[in-house]
Design a protein that fits this description.
By secondary structure, this protein is of the alpha/beta class. It is 40% helix and 13% strand.
Length: 515
């Protein structure tokens, strides 16, 4: 085996196409031309299958393997259909309860650790300060520096105490961007002073707690020519390493995102990232793409473009954090451990769901118990938002009628008119999702408000960020902020609407904006 390919392979983490360890990835792991795997929702069907998959990955690995996942909670959690569903970071911050924050984080960590995961791509330390941010939303704790710093510190500490490695993200801060780096280069057009006072601050304040950090595809145009942070020696080496004194593992965001591939090409970008100071490259695409990354890095090492010093630094940092193979469940030898984990998941899920029944915030008005509800739900391509069916299940014994109408994420005038007819003389619940981006939802709310009678309730639920409240008409009788578009959050909202629980959250986002 080419020694340069093994050196390069140690630095690259791939992604699997399905439910099993396929032959291509298995051979690459065995040969040392791949350093580990990031798993996603499509890689998990049930607990037994997921345990088998992680065991196979770890067993096959030549290097001390890195097994990682984005299990943030809320909008971004890969295994909520297999492991315990988790509330979003913003929902956790809405309660700002130290013990509950630790307990929720511990749930995630003990379940992942039992399966052999050793690197958790969380928490998100971005400050959500832009209502049209398309990608961060409730993945952020807050718009406020102190709360984000404190919540981040608690979650990082809880992850590290579990024996896993926390990897906060997206340095140097993704919360004020208007772009989704999955699709295009994200821009933070701020001075260095503004960055230090806002976007960079949660990372800087928690830097001593971090052993790893994820760098995002974010361009700082006031600091340098067009270049994402992942490829920037200024951001990674000068600011992160030298100024903030971070000597832990620098991890790239997914290098197959269009913010990278459209401008540089995958292989070249991966080499540039290592040159800039990135130690671990995430390639969350096809096997061919991870192989392209390894080949490009291998060639750069062999030619001397990547110095032995730079490669040695990266591998030394990996060796420090990942030593040997993590323990995981071997079903053939330890069949009882899977049953123990399954029982733990059931107990943990009860706690997590109970938390989600209290974390929403009542932003406006009051909700009275009603005998019927018409629920208007946006047809979001990613989040099901099953409030109506959850509400029907919750009130099955209370003889409360529930009807759902699904509407387009940005309904046109004809659809709005048709929906208004259905709302006549009804108690209406309108679920909204990022109305600053999906502006027609605000028009729908306005028309419902103009046509509603005082005898009926008009309740609005902000499923994601609470900025939606700023677009709602005064005719809304009550507004609830869920801070979480997950299925579990809808359980919590249903419990509040029927009076089984009270909204105890406090909005962690500053809505007093000059918009």
């Amino acid at each position: 085996m080419n020694k340069f390919a093994q050196l390069a392979g140690r630095l690259v983490i791939g992604r699997l196409p399905g439910l099993v360890l396929d032959s291509e990835h298995k051979q690459a792991l065995q040969a040392g031309t791949l350093g580990g795997i990031t798993l996603f929702k499509e890689n998990a069907r049930d607990l037994k299958q997921l345990a088998t998959l992680t065991h196979d990955i770890l067993t096959a690995s030549y290097h001390a393997p890195v097994l990682t996942v984005d299990q943030e909670g809320g909008a971004v959690q890969r295994f909520d259909h297999v492991l315990s569903p988790l509330p979003s970071p913003m929902a956790v911050a809405a309660r700002a309860d130290l013990e509950a924050t630790k307990a929720i984080t511990a749930i995630s960590c003990r379940q992942l650790k039992a399966l052999g995961f050793n690197l958790l791509l969380a928490p998100t330390l971005d400050l959500l300060t832009n209502p049209i941010n398309p990608v961060i939303g409730t993945r952020a704790f807050s718009s406020e520096l102190e709360l984000t710093t404190d919540m981040g510190a608690q979650v990082i500490a809880a992850i590290e105490e579990s024996g896993m490695i926390a990897c906060p993200k997206h340095f140097p801060g993704h919360g004020s961007t208007s772009q989704d780096s999955h699709l295009e280069l994200a821009i933070v057009d701020k001075s260095r002073l503004q960055l230090d006072q806002c976007d960079l601050a949660p990372f800087a304040r928690n830097i001593a707690l971090m052993r790893a950090i994820l760098v995002g595809h974010i361009w700082l145009p006031q600091l340098e020519e067009k270049k994402p942070a992942t490829l920037s020696p200024l951001v990674v080496t000068e600011i992160l390493r030298h100024e903030l004194k971070f000597d832990g593992l620098a991890v790239s965001d997914d290098m197959t995102m269009k913010a990278i591939t459209k401008a540089y090409g995958l292989g070249e970008a991966c080499v540039m990232a290592v040159e800039a100071g990135i130690d671990l490259i995430l390639v969350c695409g096809t096997f061919a793409e991870s192989a392209e990354a390894v080949q490009a890095i291998s060639t750069a090492i062999e030619s001397g473009r990547l110095s032995s010093k730079r490669v040695s630094e990266a591998i030394t940092r990996l060796d420090k954090l990942f030593q040997g193979k993590p323990q995981c469940i071997d079903q053939a030898a330890e069949p009882d451990k899977l049953e123990i984990l399954q029982n733990q998941i059931v107990a943990d899920s009860l706690y997590s769901t109970k938390f989600s029944t209290s974390s929403p915030a009542l932003m406006r008005g009051t909700i009275s118990i009603a005998t019927d509800w018409l629920v208007l739900t946006p047809n979001h391509p990613r989040y099901h938002l099953p409030l109506a069916e959850t509400l029907a299940d919750t009130v099955a014994e209370q003889k409360i009628a529930t009807e759902e109408l699904r509407y387009s994420i940005n309904p046109d005038d004809i659809e709005i008119a048709n929906l208004l007819e259905k709302c006549h003389n009804r108690n209406v619940i309108l679920i909204t999702f990022r109305t600053f981006i999906n502006g027609a939802q605000a028009q729908l709310a306005d028309q419902i408000g103009k046509n509603s009678s005082k005898a009926n309730q008009f309740v609005q639920i902000a499923a994601d960020t609470p900025y939606d409240l700023l677009k709602m008409p005064t005719a809304v009788t009550a507004s609830l902020a869920a801070f979480d578009p997950s299925d579990q959050a809808m359980v919590g909202i249903a419990e509040i609407i029927v009076g089984h629980s009270e909204a105890q959250g406090v909005c962690p986002v500053n809505l007093r904006l000059d918009l």
